[in-house]
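Onboarding guide, step 5: your first structure request.
Type a short instruction followed by the sequence, for example:

Predict the 3D structure of this protein.
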Amino acid sequence: MFTDREFESERLAPSKWLADGQGYTTLEKAEKEKGRDIVRYDCQTGNKAILVPASKLIPENKKDPLAIRDYAWSKDQSRLLIFTNTKRVWRYHTRGDYWVVDLKSWQMHQLGQRFKPSTLMFATFSPDGKKVAYVCEKNVYVEDINSRKITALTNSTMANIVNGTSDWVYEEEFGLRNGIRWSPDSKKIAFWRFDTEGVGTFNLINNTDSIYSRIVPLPYPKVGTTNSSCRVGVIEADGGEPTWFDVPGDPRNNYIPRMEWAASSTEIILQQINRLQNINNIMLGDIKTGKVKMIYTDKDSAWLDVVDDWKWLNGGKEFTWVSEQDGWRHIYSISRDGSKVKLVTNGAYDITQILGIDDKEGWVYFMASPDNPTQRYLYRTRLDGKGKAERLSPSNQAGTHAYNMSPNFKWAFHTFSTIDDPPTTELISLPDHKSIRTMVANKELKEKLKPIKRTPTEFFTLEIAKKVSLDGYKIVPFNFDKNKKYPLLFFVYGEPAGQTVLDRWGGSRHLWHTMLAQNGYIVISVDPRGTPGPKGRAWRKSIYGQIGILASADHAAANRLIRKWSYIDSTRIGIWGWSGGGSMSLNAIFRYPDLYQTAMAIAFVSNQRLYDTIYQERYMGLPETNPEGFKNGSPVNFVKNLRGNLLLMHGTGDDNVHYQSAEVLIDELIKQNKMFTMVPYPNRSHGLHEGENSFRHVWETLTWYLKKHMPPGPVE
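The system replies with structure tokens like these:
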């Protein structure tokens, strides 16, 4: 599972819808040479045509074609932009080389040739296809495709100034990476600028790549400390001075996580969220004067999430919005001046994502699951808010559906899986949801799974208090005997960033759990309150101010009920988790030592004061106003209660949850004279996947420790 990836599921190759929605392009291995062709498929007929053969992507004086990481078409589809030779920036491969290919002459050239290899980021065609904007080493550039002239739009030389992308915490917690936006008329670019001066520097230490250690400085705002200053501006694509928007408020104590052109080339629209993240102000900005106008404000007594599902309607006269103001996550339409707000989705259910808006025909397509929060289905409803939502996902496919819809809303790539069945991806027509052809069947993986001895995963609901029910699943041994008692391992996350009880394929982790069941364990996962399931605002926001407190109490309540099941050995109950799940595992065994005998925690936060501003303050408030919450939610403050077995695993190069968190906990464990096992992963990040054999070692360590301290198999 973790060495040669024998059980890894196949995924759809990068596929792009063509502008008319009647066809799509994808990558396929070339027949005669190395590399991959870009091919076009007609949705209706299935006819295939090679649009860009790999043989046309061989640079001058090279033998092999470019290795395509990603690609994009110009609006008129006369040019192709290829992303290759990529490098990771913290989480993702967002840095690399870009090439432009003229599809008429087959001439190709590399962008930014004067810059170092693999330093360009977020290259984007202008809407007219004549220029490309990109970021290189914290500055924004525009390159004319025909003349190849490069114009520097920003010229910052100070290390603390970041243009066209974001600082670490905006990237991690708001998902903001690409910080440049072309105007619809191709004449201007709107962009973000960050100033990290005053932000505390956390020094990561690389001890493995040299005989002397190397310091890796990282501006990282920890809870209650100074944030970067953030502002947005607009500049002519030919260069000049930017116009900065006069957004009110302290730029270090307010966030601008989203900004787009407001369906015109004269105004931008942005979201400004206060530091507590319970007020979201929507503003229109005039690109000539820089003045902004407040048009709408969303508020919540707990916190608000950034809205990505805002789409312009009716020629820019209104836009969609997602809010929980009536207790459910619903879609609204808001007029351009904010004077009219209309509810689009009605009913006691949450939408989880807007997939598409057919303004012409008056439909909005979205994901929801009103009857089962562990699953996801496609619905559509009228944009005018009239009538009931119509489910399009088949009634005979219970599980999790995902869609990538065509621009004309007549087709979609549809992926379906369950917790026990790997995904199948097919092309479907809409709205009838008719299967046109299978694109990824995962047939080989499914054949490999057939002989594996396993029982179907069982979902259940557990009522831990009046009107408080938790969703869970359990995996039992293939030779399960209800008259015997089995050791139990809980898998947990338990924070607003993740839901574990989902009826979708779980990949290698699910197979590891299955292997444990084969060895004689029962594996159970339960989602406590505060996890992001579609169960209403009250469910999700109940955790506010008490991260680590309410969820661990809910989990303990579930434990007390489950341990009474006749086939559970209450003397062998363990818990494990990663990141927030690692923190939950620590809180479980420290706060409830009579309920858990073993805990395995990976990449955990031991003290909430050590994590970043945006995430922790969103759910906990500020330390000065919620000191007891920060204290009681942090596992390090309950170390003295440890009685069971404890395994800690952490990467020393973790830029997200710093290795400091492990050392602070270890220091307290030593102080309290508590025995534990610690496995550090030198220079590995949060996912522990760098370095030779890391992934296998992580999972074998978990297996070894569990078997040693909580032996498998039933007892009479």
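Each response can be followed by summary notes, for example: The first helix runs from residue 168 to 174.
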